[in-house]
């Protein structure tokens, strides 16, 4: 297979812990990361939608929803960046020879991801703080959120592109020689649409729960926020059905079959995710106030979607390398330090969310 010659060799020094541990922590930290990615990207899109509804129908409640989302996303962006460091490092450790090459092929388009996140973050703060010249303008700085949302969509597209490109070494040479565009890769477009839809649906679910958490919000605002989140979650989740089928069929047959009996983890995850999604749709229709159960279903769907992602990526990479055969130079002292620091970071993250929850009460703003 000629494409094997294009894959850089693993570092000869070996990795510091068994590969299975790296895979576990890659999956776990990516799950934490994707929660805040969904809130940031989906929240940005819902913010713009709320502003549009407010302008078209003259309903100030939707303007207040948009302002609240803008306030929340300044926290979500920070947490997205913080939780994104660990999975990126784990990917570079166990799949670095694939990820490095795909990053080089994307060149400046990949490098701009960092700048895009920084600029989007600043634009959100301009919208949130509203300096004098923005505060008294007609648009109230909404142009900054439009730009930030476009930048986040770009970042999401490049992350999906890098992931898909890293799984297709057979396409590297043609892309390098400009005989093929990277966005022509199979599964890239449906995977990206599925990613954006999932983020939007998750943000809608969050709005439903959040509307009930803010006890001091006016009743009308809470109802508008709840219904907006409910409609978003329901409609986008329904839209995920054809997109999901498109994504599934865009994979090679042997990869697709990993979710249909060939892999126990992939098959079980696929079935549970489908059942949880169907149950969530039913709860939205039939049990309006069962929000904690619905939130739990949202977390379950996210967990098993992450496991499905892991199964598919492992299926592609296993055609070229068996990561479980990587040379290991175990250094358990470093691993213990990592565990201690991980627990500390999770504790700080939990405390941060607790403080944010208190600060978000309207009377404390």
UniProtKB/TrEMBL annotation:
The keyword Transmembrane helix applies. Signal peptide: none annotated. Keywords: Membrane, Transmembrane, Transmembrane helix. The chain crosses the membrane at residues 20-48, 69-90, 110-127, 139-160, 192-211, 232-249, 255-284, 291-312, 332-354. The keyword Membrane applies. This is Uncharacterized protein.
């Amino acid at each position: 297979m000629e494409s094997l010659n294009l894959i850089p060799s693993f570092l000869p020094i070996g990795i510091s812990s068994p590969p299975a541990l790296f895979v576990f922590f890659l999956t776990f930290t990516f799950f934490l990361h994707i929660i805040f990615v969904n809130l940031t990207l989906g929240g940005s899109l819902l913010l713009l939608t709320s502003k549009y509804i407010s302008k078209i129908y003259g309903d100030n409640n939707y303007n207040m929803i948009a302002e609240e989302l803008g306030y929340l996303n300044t926290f979500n962006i920070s947490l997205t960046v913080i939780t994104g460091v660990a999975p990126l490092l784990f990917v570079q450790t166990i799949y670095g020879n694939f990820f490095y090459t795909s990053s080089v092929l994307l060149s400046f388009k990949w490098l701009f991801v960092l700048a895009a996140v920084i600029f989007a973050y600043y634009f959100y703060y301009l919208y949130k703080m509203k300096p004098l010249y923005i505060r008294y303008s007609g648009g109230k700085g909404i142009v900054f959120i439009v730009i930030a949302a476009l930048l986040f969509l770009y970042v999401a597209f490049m992350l999906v592109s890098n992931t898909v490109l890293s799984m297709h070494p057979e396409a590297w040479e043609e892309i390098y020689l400009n005989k093929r565009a990277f966005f022509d890769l199979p599964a890239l477009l449906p995977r990206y649409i599925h990613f954006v839809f999932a983020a939007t649906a998750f943000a809608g679910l969050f709005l439903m729960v959040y509307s009930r958490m803010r006890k001091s919000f006016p009743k009308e605002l809470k109802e508008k926020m709840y219904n907006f989140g409910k409609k978003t979650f329901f409609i986008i989740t329904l839209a995920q059905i054809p997109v999901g089928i498109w994504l599934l069929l865009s994979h090679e047959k042997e990869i697709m079959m990993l979710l249909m009996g060939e892999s126990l983890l992939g098959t079980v995850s696929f079935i549970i995710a489908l059942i949880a999604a169907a149950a969530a749709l039913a709860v939205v229709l039939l049990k309006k106030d069962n929000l904690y159960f619905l939130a739990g279903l949202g977390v379950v769907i996210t967990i098993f979607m992450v496991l499905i992602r892991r199964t598919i990526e492992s299926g592609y990479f296993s055609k070229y390398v068996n990561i479980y055969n990587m040379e290991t130079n175990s250094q358990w002292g470093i691993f213990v330090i990592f565990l201690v620091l991980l627990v500390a970071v999770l504790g700080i993250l939990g405390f941060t969310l607790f403080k944010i929850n208190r600060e978000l009460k309207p009377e404390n703003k």
